[in-house]
Amino acid sequence: MKFQVVSDPRARSAACHGLTRAAARGRTVTVSVLAAAACGLVMTACGSQNSPSSPSSPSSPSSASIGACVTSQLKISIIDTGALAGQAGGYLEFTNDSRTLCRMSGWPVVIALTATGKATRLQRLQSTMFGAWHYTPPPPVITLQPGGSAYAVVAAADHPAGGNTGCPAPYVRLRVSPPGDPGNVTIPAWLSGANSYLPACTSADGSPTAGTSAITTLSSLPHLSQAPGLPARKRAVYATG
After folding, report:
1. Across the beta sheet with 102-104, what order do the strands follow?
2. Which residues contact 207 (CB under 8 A, 6 or more apart)?
């Protein structure tokens, strides 16, 4: 007896019934066995063909899809400057000038430059007189929408300490890099609210006092968040996450 491979399910079913009737007429035991086996194969093949395939799992969006803010997409300036309780300084404002979200966290790198080109890297401050900002680990991760801003305090002592009779020549420019990005922009270190450049005064042991805070939110800077001249959009377009 010859068997043919039948691909159509209805044809397979007909073949199964034909083999079964032939076995029922009692031709041979062998035919009956083969008929049962063939029917089993047909039913298995049909079941395999008709069973639905497993659906593929949908891909979830990457949690790292929001990249770190880089210099090329930021507008960096120093705002709301002044002198307060022995310090002079202001706020570095980092505004997302692009059309995409980006994130900031940690300390910016700020290099203060004198008129003669002497460079001093600003230390990391954990508290300042400006806005009563206090550092609490870990630094927040701030997501900036287009047009949104994040901030960092920049400040220095504005009076000589210890036996010093005066302060070194002030810093006239600031070279600023956002956290984690090697790019930088150079901005004037003029503090219009204090009518001076950023002081280069040192502590009693001769170490520089100028420093910067970690990137923080507007709500962490009450002095700035209540400033009447601050555009309302600055108050609403940042978020932490």
Report:
1. 102-104, 142-144, 238-240
2. none
Do residues 224 and 80 make contact, with C-beta atoms less than 8 angstroms apart? Answer: yes
**What domains appear along the chain, each with residue ranges and CATH number?**
9-50 (no CATH), 71-240 (2.60.40)
Measure the CA–CA gap between 155 and 202, rounded to whole angstroms.
12
Burial of 229 (0-12, 13-18, 19+ CB in 10 A): exposed
Say how far apart CA 62 and CA 79 lie, in whole Å. Answer: 35
- Confirm if 177 and 68 have CB atoms less than 8 A apart: no
Q: Which amino acid is at 55?
A: P
Higher model confidence: residue 152 or residue 239? Answer: 152
pLDDT given at position 18: 52
Q: 94 φ, ψ to 5°?
A: -110, 105
pLDDT of 212 over the 90 cut: yes
- Site of tokens 């059309």: 99
